[in-house]
Design brief:
The N and C termini lie far apart (about 105 Å). Strand 1, helix 2 and strand 2 form a beta-alpha-beta unit. Strands 1, 2, 3, 4, 5, 6, 7, 8, 9 and 10 form a 10-stranded mixed sheet that branches. The protein has 16 helices and 10 strands. The longest helix is centred in the C-terminal third of the chain and has 50 residues. With about 425 residues, it is an alpha/beta fold.
Length: about 425
């Protein structure tokens, strides 16, 4: 009888151990962070900046995570949110204010989405009041383009006729062919959008200011009053001819509520730990992105931008020396005041250095404009090569001397790089034409 009890006890112990191992394995399998077999990024139409940005992070994301990435064309923000909520896409680019902030996590602001209002040449549309009863291209249903357009028109109750389109690609196609049924369009996109730049270069449209931008932004929590800088879209002509007041919001990355930390970290590292900021002018830098008030933010994104948040080192230290708390408090307060004093001095010095570098940047921009004004179709090969070398020197000088992180994240620096690239492309084109 005792032998049977011992055998039963041993079997019970082994069964308990096996059960514990199985439960542990099941817990590990179902609780560990896994990646989907494929990542789908919901972007927008191929002519827009959302699609362009998604294509840029596709390859670095594939290399970092070791799985395939598909860039999905959509009608924009509203559809993109539906796709990540339903699980049909893992990542989406959304326009701040175009969708409600629920059922997803934001992970990073990307760049400013700027409202570009363009009207047909010789249409006598000079400002907001002239929009009344016009045929307006708003954008497809489900797009941030359309949401911003409607917000602008509702601001003063403008009556209009909508020109319907089924998707973003048709939207741009109608503009490129200068469709007679359109008087004006409102395009909310990142600065230097190549498709928009091509449309403006056709000289068939004028950029129109939104002179109520300040009042509009005060009444809206999603938009800011911004400007399109003078000459931003000009090659051989100045577009716009002066700084243009308009409104803008932010394009940001979002993921579903059940997205793993591993995927979020992989996306953020593919953006901020690669050379993407040089390829995509206007991208908001890591430092500013971490301070952006996007809600709700994914826990992994919060940890990535603020790795030391929540560490209670100071609290534990205070508890361990409770008997000396008054002395410690006085020491900490004095240290804090000294820190603030020296930090203020450092900030002032940094601001002075930044101001000096901005002046240098302005000088370099003036030099590029000077070169642009001298470029004509009648120049010889030697002169074109000389200008090409001069632009290269200007760009290299800017990259070497203007090293401040805040300056490099500034819109003006992105414009400087884009201006150098545009002039280089123009000179190469003229050289090829000369050698043909």
């Amino acid at each position: 009888m005792k032998v049977k009890k011992r055998i039963f006890a041993k079997r019970l112990i082994w069964l308990s151990l096996i059960t514990l191992v199985i439960i542990s394995l099941l817990y590990w399998v179902f609780s560990r962070e896994t990646l989907p077999p494929k990542i789908v990024i919901a972007s927008a139409g191929q002519g827009g900046q959302y699609y362009r940005f998604a294509k840029m992070i596709k390859e670095p994301l594939e290399k970092r995570l070791g799985i395939s990435v598909e860039v999905l064309t959509t009608n924009g923000s509203v559809e993109n949110k539906e796709l990540i909520v339903s699980g049909k896409a893992q990542i989406a680019i959304l326009q701040f204010g175009a969708v409600s902030n629920d059922k997803f996590y934001s992970i990073a602001p990307l760049y400013y989405d700027i409202a570009h209002i363009i009207a047909k040449k010789n249409s006598n549309i000079k400002g907001y009041e002239d929009f009344k009863n016009k045929r307006i291209l708003l954008g497809p249903v489900g797009s941030g383009y359309r949401e911003t357009s409607l917000d602008i028109l509702k601001f003063r109750g403008i009556k209009y006729t909508e020109v319907p389109v089924k998707d973003v690609d048709e939207f741009y196609h109608l503009l490129e062919k200068n469709d007679e049924g359109i008087d004006l369009a409102i395009i909310t996109t990142g600065l230097l959008n190549p498709t928009l730049k091509k449309i403006l270069a056709s000289d068939k449209y004028d950029l129109i200011p939104f002179n109520y931008a300040d009042a509009f932004s005060i009444q809206s929590s999603f938009y800011q009053s911004l400007k399109i800088p003078k000459g931003l879209y000009g090659n051989n002509q100045m577009i716009p001819q002066e700084d243009l007041r308009t409104i803008g919001t932010v394009a940001f990355l979002a993921v579903g509520e059940n997205t793993s930390n591993k995927l979020v970290e992989g996306v953020l590292k593919s953006i901020y730990e690669t050379d993407l900021k040089w390829k995509f002018p206007g991208l908001i830098g890591k430092k500013k992105a971490g301070q952006w008030p996007l809600l709700p933010i994914h826990p992994a994104a919060k940890k990535y931008f603020n790795p030391y948040e929540g560490i209670g080192v100071l609290a534990n230290f205070m508890e361990s020396i409770n008997a000396l708390k008054e002395l410690v408090f006085a020491f900490i307060l004095g240290s804090y005041l000294l820190f603030k004093f020296f930090k203020k001095l450092g900030d002032e010095e940094k601001e002075n250095l930044l101001s000096i570098q901005k002046e240098k940047l302005d000088e370099l921009l003036i030099k590029t404009i000077s070169v642009e004004e001298k470029i004509t179709n009648s120049l010889g090969q030697k002169e074109l090569n000389d200008f090409l070398k001069e632009i290269a020197k200007i760009k290299i000088k800017g990259l070497r001397e203007l090293a401040d992180e805040d300056l490099r994240g500034d819109q003006q620096f992105a414009i400087f790089l884009a201006q150098c690239d545009n002039l280089t492309n123009t000179l190469h084109f003229l050289l090829e034409k000369r050698n043909a």
